[in-house]
User: Fold these one by one.
Assistant:
Number 1:
Amino acid sequence: MSRSTHNGVRRLSATRLAAALAFAVAIALVAAGCGDDSVEVTTTAAAGTPIAHGQQLAGESCSSCHGQNFEGVKSLGPALADSHFIQDHTDDEIIAFIKEGRSKDAPDNETGIAMPPYGGNPRLTDDDLADIVLFLRTMQ
Ligand code: HEC
C-alpha cells in the first residue's frame, strides 16, 4: 500500500517535472525570439544550411555505397572523406562526375565497379548536387 502510493507520487512528480521543463523551454523560445533577433536567425540557419541539406541528401543517396561516414565500403564505393578525388577537382568537375557516373569498363574506372549516374537518384537537382559537394568538402 505505502509502496504503490510512493510510486504514484514519483510518477506525479515526473509528470510535473516534464510540464515544468516544457514551460521553461517555451519561455526560453519566446525570450530568444523577442529579446535577441540574432539568436533566432542563427538557429534557423543552422537547421537549414546548404551543408546540412547536402549531408542529408548524401546520407540518402550516396552512403549505401560510400559508407555511413563516407569512409568507403569495400567492393561498393571508395571513400569520399579524405578523398584525393574531392581535393583535386573543382566543384563543377565533381558535379559533372556525379551526374555522369562511371561505368564498370570505363577506361578511367579505378575499382572495376560501376557508379550509376546521379548515384542512382536522378531526382537530385544541380542545387542538390552543389549542396552535396559543399558537405563533402567539410570532410577533407
Ligand atoms: C551504387 C553504388 C554507388 C552509389 C549509390 C554512389 N556511388 Fe559514387 N562511386 C561508386 C563507385 C563504384 C565509384 C568508383 C568508380 C571507379 O572505380 O572509378 C564511385 C566514385 C565516386 C566518386 C569519385 C571518387 C574517386 O576516388 O574516384 C565520387 C566523387 C562519388 N562517387 C560521389 C558520389 C556521390 C556524391 C553519390 C551520391 C549522390 C554517389 N557517389 C553514389 C559507387 C556509388
Number 2:
Amino acid sequence: MKILNFTAVEILPALLNENKNQTIRPAWKKPEFARGICINGSPKYDSNGGNPIIEKLPRFSVSEKITLMWNQRSPHKVFCSNCGGPFLKCRCEKRGIALSFRKELGKSVITEVFKIEIGRDTEALKPYWVNIGKILQQADFVEDLPKKDGFRTSGHMFEWFNERYNLTRPKPFWVYRWRWL
Ligand SMILES: [Zn+2]
C-alpha cells in the first residue's frame, strides 16, 4: 500500500480530527541534467522562458487504498499533537495539554484526482489565482480547496504554497481527495 506523508504542522489539527480529506502536491519535478542533457524526462519551459520543469504523473488513482503517515522518515513513532515534533523530545510550552499520536494516521481510499494550476500576480491587490479545469478563479473565491485541505483560511493556504513553491511562476499541482476508512 502506498503512503501519503505529511509534515506541515499547519494542517495537523485537521489531520488528527479527520476533517482533512485532500492534499495538493506538485505535478512537476526539477529536471536533472548530465552533460547538458536532461536525464529524467523532457523539460517544459514556461512562457517567460523561465525555469524548466518536468511534468509528473499522479501518484494515486481513484479507488486506490493508501496509508496516511506523519513524518514518515523520522525515526520516532509517537508525536506531539500540538507541535508535531517527537513526543519524547517535545519542548513545546503547552506540553501539559498536548496529546500524543502515532505516526500511522490511518487508511483511506482515494475518491478524486484532478490537476490545478496556482499562480501569483505580484501587481494585483489580491494576487493569488487558481486554474481549475479551464476556469480561472481568484483565490478569495476558492473556499473548497483550503477547507478540504485543512487550512484555517484561503489566505493561509496560498501564502503557505507561495513560500514553499514560489507561485510567481505559476505551477501545476495534483489534487487528491480521499475518504477515511
Ligand atoms: Zn509539542
